[in-house]
Design goal:
This protein is mainly alpha-helical. It has one domain: Proton glutamate symport protein. The protein is built from 18 helices and no strands. The longest helix is centred in the C-terminal third of the chain and has 37 residues. The chain binds aspartic acid (ASP). Aspartic acid binds next to helix 17 and helix 18.
Amino acid sequence: MPHKHAVILLLLIVAGVLAGVAAGWLWGPAMQSVAWLGDLFLTTLKMLIVPLIIAAVISGVASLGDVRKLGRVGGATLAYYLCTTGIAVFIGLVMVNLIQPGAGLQIGDGEIPQKVLEKEETTAVDILMSLIAPNLVAAAADTQLLPLIVFSILFSAALTTVGGKGAHVIAFFNGVNEAMMKLVIWLMYFAPVGIFALVAARLGKAGGGEQFLAEITAVGWHVVTVLSGLAIHFVVLLLILVFIAGRGMDYLVGMLRALFTAFGTASSSATLPLTMECVRENRVDDRAVRFVLPLGSTVNMDGTALYEAAAVMFIAQAYGVDMSLGQQAIIFITATLAAIGAAGIPEAGLVTMIIVLNAVGLPLEGIGLLLAVDWFLDRFRTSINVWGDAVGAAVISRLMRWNNGKEG
Ligand code: ASP
């Protein structure tokens, strides 16, 4: 897409978000009448995800060449994900200790929210098991992306070992990948309207501006803690972008369309097609785009990790339970795991939080405290999730170029 078009589109998307907030604020529930427009956008994005991920990962892994390179790039990618997720959780814990958002909060007899009741069994082992699915078609139908990614990596690695016959198949998936990216570019033009509708309808569902404000102020310090933590992590990632990936502010500007889409959809998986397109336009090594981003969209969730740690500590404070340093270390580890296990869909983090709560013996009813504002905070943490993936792609891309230089 020519540069001028990208700028115009970005301005329209920003206008869409602002108009969505204004309309949802003023007209409240009436704005649910435009929900179908948002759903149309979201559904079309989702339609692209499965073929895009399969084609991108297969052609991306194949383009790395030999399997040893896959090991190196894969290792570096996972190390980056773990480090940045760890930093995010740490920031969340520091902020929640400083601000103490739950102290002095009055809590009544809560009930375990329905969403949580349905999922009570999630454990760390489940996260490991979610890497593989017995039936790929069923996984695709449920948009369980991780098994598809794992299969595509293995399949592509196998293709590179079977010579000429494999090359035809790789060429096929290269073509599919290019065509999918074309579809993404076409769909981008619908983003301003789609995001407007998504934001307006969701704020409308929350009852409009006044009701929303009342809900937010009830747990105001929790909102302040999470948003300021996310803002700090945003800056940390920016520093990583500048000092480790060697990129400038133009990279951030190039990513804004994807970040606003993440805000509108609250789903990093649904945003993935746009993330890939923006990173590609940002001249990141194409191999990193195709391999690092699909994996990152399901595994690397800095915003979610930060949120889970802060939210669980908030619940502990609200119940008057003191968390020792040892228990906070457990939160650190389980929040990282819970973020890895969370799917890139709206409010997934709320459900995987069970792992963290169980690990430190806090009541699941505590999640009820967060329900009213979770959809709102979800949008910010999803944007940070996508930002983390985008910075990761830039870091890995630099690493690959540096490595190539060394080899060449
Ligand atoms: N909505 C988030 C995402 O898609 C996950 C979460 O934190 O709930 O990235």
